[in-house]
Design goal:
heterotrimer; A alpha+beta; B alpha+beta; C alpha+beta; A: alpha+beta; DNA polymerase, domain 1; 5 strands; globular; B: alpha+beta; Uridine Diphospho-n-acetylenolpyruvylglucosamine Reductase, domain 2; Uridine Diphospho-n-acetylenolpyruvylglucosamine Reductase, domain 3; Enolase-like, domain 1; 12 helices; 15 strands; 27% strand
Chain lengths: 162, 286, 788
């Protein structure tokens, strides 16, 4: 039996009837067409499905859509539109910190959350923050570099603003 | 890897949760963070007909300093366990265990209550709770029970919870000044289940150990208290000699599974190495 | 003007992914689309007695349950052999198992339902009765007399064997001052692309056309496969590969499930989607490696290599993969042994065995990591017995940079390589003297660090010698259509494909330079058989070398066309004109005479104003196949620094270095990231990745929680340098680079671990080098010392 779900996705109010067994990832991808959230393992091991739920990254494959009742969800599409991670995206592009692009959504989510909590992380801290994000293409170094550069740029801008 | 069908119901109170559970004739599972239940259902390892969402029940929330204990609500997420200053002060083994629990995004959603109720023998929190001699607050239709951690973890994925009961909180006894703590694990990769792990605490009085509490995880079907190792430490200074005796005593304490890919003897060896390292680096909360 | 070849041009198509606008097959939903799930054999070997689908048919959402009788009849069986592998055998394979199941996970029935979840529900209800029999799991046991057959369709369990031998190999060993030897075991691992295999087959009975949206690296190969095996005219088959979430060789093989999706779509006349979930990926994607190698190396008193003698046993599953076979890896293993070195004599023997596991086949750096690890481990032992240091023994043996062309003892022809220069450069980067000093100092504190190096060659730019000569319908050539649009922009449709490595970007750079425009003005289309010319696409490192050359020559053809047209318009000799900055320029004065935009306008809208007989068609096509050397070899050397916790066996990889020579570098940024990604795909199986089977042929770690892939915390920073030796076989001079990192990373790491363990006399010869294997090696060495 479907359950009525009321939630906020990328700033829009969403009301949909969903089957309880539908994961948040499947709901976003299939019901809302937000295919930027990817599925790589469906058991919380690869990080391709990360979305921001009430401001923090969670695995959309491990959250049931019905558990998002009353929550605020932001997907890569929403994050892109707000421009909040525009500099991070630009550094990923500049450093070629992605190849096939399948992990990129999750990498951006983890990076964005890290930089919010720890504005100038060390390289080890960056790697630790990515410990649940699998990338088969890059070997990770370019991703670490892109996050590192973003952090230092943001810090320099904050400093300059003072 | 899609979940089988089930009915989803949200309980607003414990009474409602119990009613929904009993109504399902036992074919129901409580859902807090869902980070064990959902993947196990996706793997079709279980298929309860009903999931009862208990995440919004007030009694399960909050971290609160009480008279003799720190009460940690079962719905406290791993990320909060990691960051909460009260936990860092009064239940430091949980703070030290938390960075080892999976990965940041999992920690944002997984709950300590769900973790303990699952009783995964390779998980960090059960061993930490055991080492701190915590009590688990459990509420059921018959009323509230306080279960000592030593009596809670019974077997592989098996706890003292009886069907319908909800683990509502963890009570950690407030540590005296100067208590030493140590926690570490050996894992293949950051965030992986440990090959072996150790949680320990001890008080020092007049330069000798009193009340040593040593537990290990990933060494058997449940988190394991190393009583012989504790005895080896008791009443002696924390020295290379006493640590060596504690390491040796693990042969008595542990009966690790013998797997062709991971022989019991090897696991015991790693447990000894790790225990030695943890005991050597024990420190008080700053 | 600035040339774009050689510049670190950013990837335009990366922007879509960063915005969440990737378009993968797994994202696609077609009207009336159905979902497929396969019921799989729970056993590795057995006789299929009965499949009862009656309960499953009643399950909600089920549209149809297809079994072998109906499904297999639609599709001509496939056979994974090649003619140039003399004596090779492999039984035919069909979509679903018929009488016999051959590996755990082999599909036995196909559920078609309205959703994936409903299909999974029904799959749980299918009753499969299999009378199980003892599986053949061990490769050596498979080849013993009287071993049961892994596949009853085969003569015996020997899929293929080969022997390479120089006449004087026995004398070389007899005369040697030193012989070093060892046995090696290289674990089975798998590709674990982050996007699993995905296909949507869409058969339209009204037109007889089949469109397959397929996450593959080789759309033309699949157009041919689908046409031939389903009896369709090739022109009615279209294969579209949009964004592909990782491939690495794994997505160019024919799989039962993809063939099943096509057959089901033809039966049901509706689009059928199959996307493997991660559990199915582990059970059905090809696995790789799995080699047991015995190797010997003969040296003279000065430490010069005289010969190698190797024996490779490669169990490959119950059938050979199609259409590239499962023998190609072993074939490359025995041919790449000792490749970087002056080695006059050689014997290499290969045995490929059937067993009841999922098939192994080509995955990034086919054969290279095995040959490299064996060779380099033996060189390391040779250094020990001769008292030479790792750099010195290689300096004595690596082929001199001025000694080309060179033919290896295994018959490979090297045009020109740069081993000695690479070695010198690596030495500069690593500073081994400082590393040795650190090592000695830290050992006193009980910290055991070690470093190791490994030289390699990589096979790239394959011509027909790879597969074509063996009768496989795998294109040796690539094609491009380059056109100028009415606005003077450039479009290139090309057969090489993009999986994130930057194919479209480098093609744009190459074309841009031929036509004097910026790469931003060049749009590139790939991955669709209906809109690009036919070609081999992406495998064995051909995108830059062959695809790039194709684009270059097509671009030059269009340049001639534009200049001829411009000459007619300007009443000038085309030889006095060239293209620069989007315009036709007078060579003598450098003056811009007419813009491309203006030429496009006239050619498109006012061809009537052109002089009679002037060809105003601004579209050209060109196909290119490598000639000259059968392959272009690249070379390089890698170094690895590790720290081993000798109490726990845990290894920290501290640093990795690569010197690589891929010829002309089109885009340094992309080349470096190919190398880094490749290195990590070499370090993964060196330390973590292994498909573990029990004695019953069950895969025991087939999930992403249990199969350990390399993650960010465990991987090192990787320093890269280049030597540039262009091939003279092409104008562009580029060779491949995709497999270089993977080729030698594991070999360098194994040498590094063994260097760290040297004080204990312990040595690893098995991958992955897990903590327990390291502890076992330490124990064995301790035992050896106390009880010799």
């Amino acid at each position: 039996m479907k359950v009525l779900l009321s939630t906020t996705v990328n700033g829009e109010q969403v009301q949909e009837a969903v089957l309880p067994r539908t994961s948040l990832a499947d709901f976003l991808r299939e019901d809302l067409g937000l295919t930027g959230t990817h599925l790589g393992c469906e058991m919380g091991a690869c990080g391709a499905c990360l979305v921001l739920m009430d401001g923090v990254p969670v695995h959309a494959c491990l959250v049931l859509a019905v558990q998002a009742e009353g929550s605020t969800i932001e997907t890569i599409e929403g994050l892109n539109e707000t421009g909040a991670a525009a500099d991070l995206q630009a550094h990923f592009h500049d450093r070629n910190a992605l190849q096939c692009g399948f992990c990129t959504n999750g990498m951006l989510m983890s990076a964005q959350a890290l930089l919010e909590a720890n504005p100038v992380p060390t390289r080890d801290e960056i790697r630790d923050a990515l410990s649940g994000n699998y990338c088969r293409c890059t070997g990770y170094e370019a991703i670490v570099d892109a996050i590192d550069t973003t952090a230092r740029d943001r810090a320099a801008r904050t400093e300059a603003a003072k | 890897m899609k979940l089988p069908s089930f009915e989803y119901l949200r309980a607003r109170s414990l009474a409602e949760a119990w009613a929904l559970h009993s109504d399902a004739g036992g074919d129901a599972v409580y859902l807090s963070g869902g980070h064990s239940v959902v993947p196990s259902m996706a793997l079709r390892l279980q298929a309860p007909s009903r999931l009862i969402d208990i995440s919004q029940i007030a009694e399960l929330h909050g971290v609160e300093l009480q008279d003799q204990t720190l009460r940690i609500g079962a719905m406290t997420r791993h990320a909060e366990v990691l960051a909460n200053p009260l936990i860092a002060r009064h239940a430091p083994l949980l703070s030290r265990a938390a960075p080892h629990v999976a990965h940041p995004a999992i920690r944002n959603r997984g709950t300590i209550g769900g973790n303990l109720a699952l009783a995964d023998p390779a998980s960090e929190f059960p061993a930490a709770v055991l080492a701190m001699r915590a009590e688990l607050e459990v509420m059921g239709p018959e009323g509230q029970r306080m279960i000592a951690a030593d009596d809670f973890f019974l077997d592989l994925y098996e706890t003292a919870l009886i069907p319908g009961e909800v683990l509502t909180a963890i009570h950690v006894p407030l540590p005296p000044e100067g208590r030493l703590f140590g926690f570490d694990e050996i894992a293949r990769r950051r965030g992986d289940y440990a090959m072996v792990g150790v949680a320990a605490q001890a008080d020092m009085s007049d330069g000798v150990v009193s009340d040593a509490s040593v537990t290990l995880f990933s060494v058997g079907v449940a988190p394991t208290r190393a009583t012989a190792a504790q005895d080896a430490l008791e009443g002696a200074p924390l020295s290379s000699d006493s640590i060596a005796r504690a390491q040796a005593a693990l042969a008595t304490d542990l009966d690790p599974p013998d797997d062709p890919g991971f022989p019991a003897e090897r696991r015991l060896q790693l447990a000894r190495v790790l225990l030695g390292r943890v005991l050597t680096r024990m420190e008080a909360v700053q | 003007m600035t040339l774009h070849i050689g510049q670190s041009q950013r990837r335009e198509n990366a922007r879509r992914h960063l915005a969440g606008r990737g378009r993968f097959v797994s994202d696609l939903a077609l009207p009336r689309m159905l979902h497929a799930v396969f019921v799989r054999s729970p056993m590795a070997k057995g006789r299929l007695v009965e499949i009862d689908t009656s309960e499953a048919e009643q399950s909600p959402g089920v549209v149809r349950i297809l079994t072998a009788a109906e499904l297999n009849a639609r599709c001509k069986p496939w056979v994974g052999t090649l003619d140039h592998f003399a004596g090779m055998q492999s039984p035919p394979m069909s979509i679903l198992a018929e009488e016999e199941v051959l590996w755990t996970g082999q599909p036995v029935a196909m559920i078609i339902a309205k959703s994936r979840a409903e299909a999974e529900d029904a799959a749980d209800l299918v009753m499969v009765d299999i009378e199980d029999s003892e599986p053949v799991t061990d490769g050596a046991a498979a080849l013993q007399d009287g071993a049961p057959l892994a596949n009853s369709g085969a003569r015996d369990n020997l899929c293929y064997e080969a022997l390479l031998e120089t006449p004087a190999v026995n004398e070389a060993f007899a005369d040697a001052a030193h012989v070093v030897e060892a046995s090696f075991t290289f674990g089975r691992h798998t590709a674990v692309t982050l996007e699993p295999r995905a296909v949507i087959a869409d058969f339209d009975p009204s037109s007889g056309a089949l469109t397959v949206h397929h996450g593959t690296q080789t759309p033309y190969q699949f157009q041919d496969v689908y046409a031939r095996h389903f009896g369709l005219p090739e022109g009615k088959v279209r294969v579209i590969a949009p964004d592909v979430g990782g491939s690495f060789g794994m997505k160019l093989h024919v799989y039962n499930e993809e063939m099943g999706a096509v057959a089901a779509s033809m039966i049901l006349e509706r689009p059928v989607r199959y996307v493997a979930d991660r559990l199915e990926s582990f059970l059905s994607d090809i696995h790789a490696r799995d080699h047991i190698v015995k190797g010997r190396m003969a040296l003279d008193a000065e430490g010069k290599i005289l010969a190698m003698d190797v024996d490779d046993l490669a169990p490959v599953g119950a059938v050979s993969a199609y259409p590239r076979t499962s023998a190609a890896e072993g074939n490359q293993v025995i041919r790449l042994m000792g490749a970087p070195y002056n080695m006059p004599d050689y014997r290499g023997r290969l045995q490929v065995a059937f067993q009841n596991k999922v098939q192994t086949s080509q995955y990034r750096a086919v054969g290279h990591p095995i040959a490299c690890a064996v060779t380099e481990a033996l060189v390391e032992r040779a250094a020990e017995v001769t008292g030479l240091d790792p750099f010195e023994i290689r300096a004595r043996n690596l082929i001199a940079d001025d000694a080309y062309p060179h033919v290896s003892a295994t018959g490979y022809q090297f045009e020109k390589l740069s081993h000695q220069a690479s070695l010198a450069k690596l030495r500069e980067m690593m500073d081994p003297d400082a590393l040795r000093a650190d090592q000695a100092r830290l050992r006193e504190q009980g910290i055991y660090r070690g470093f190791g190096i490994a030289s390699f060659v990589e096979i790239t730019n394959p011509g027909a010698a790879f597969y074509g000569v063996g009768g496989a319908r795998i294109s040796a050539q690539d094609g491009a259509v380059v056109r100028m649009t009415p606005s003077g922009d450039i479009h290139c449709a090309i057969s090489v494909t993009e999986q994130g490595q930057g194919t479209e970007t480098i093609i744009a750079q190459v074309v841009a330079d031929q036509l004097g425009v910026s790469p931003e003005r060049v749009s590139v289309t790939t991955g669709d058989t209906a809109t690009t010319p036919s070609g081999g696409a992406t495998w064995a490192c051909r995108g830059a070398g062959i695809g790039g050359e194709t684009a270059l020559r097509a671009g030059r053809k269009l340049r001639e066309r534009i200049l001829t047209l411009a000459g007619a318009l300007l009443q000038a000799d085309p030889a006095t004109l060239r293209l620069e900055d989007g315009a036709v320029v007078d060579v003598a004065t450098g003056e811009a005479r007419i813009t491309l935009e203006e030429i496009g306008r006239v050619a498109t809208y006012r061809p009537d104003t052109l002089p009679d007989g002037v060809d105003h068609s601004l579209t050209v096509a060109h196909h290119f196949a490598p000639s000259g050397y059968p392959f272009d070899f690249t070379n390089g050397i890698q170094g690895s620094l590790v720290e081993v916790d000798v109490e726990t066996g845990i290894v920290r990889i501290l640093k990795h270095w690569v010197v690589e020579d891929c010829g002309r570098i089109i885009n340094p940024l992309l080349v470096d990231e190919q190398i880094r990604g490749g290195v990590v795909q070499g370090l993964g199986p060196a330390f973590f990745e292994e498909c573990q089977y029990d004695a019953d042929g069950q895969l025991t770690n087939g999930s992403l929680a249990d199969y350990l892939v390399p993650m960010a915390c465990e991987m090192p920073d990787i320093e890269i340098a280049h030597i540039e030796t262009p091939t003279e076989d092409t104008i562009l001079g580029a060779k491949g680079v995709g497999e270089a990192g993977t080729a030698a990373a594991g070999a360098a790491a194994m040498n590094a671990v063994n260097d760290a363990l040297r004080p204990f006399g312990a040595r690893l010869t098995q991958t992955p080098m897990t903590p327990l294997r390291i502890l076992d090696a330490l124990d064995a060495a301790r035992k050896q010392r106390t009880d010799p």
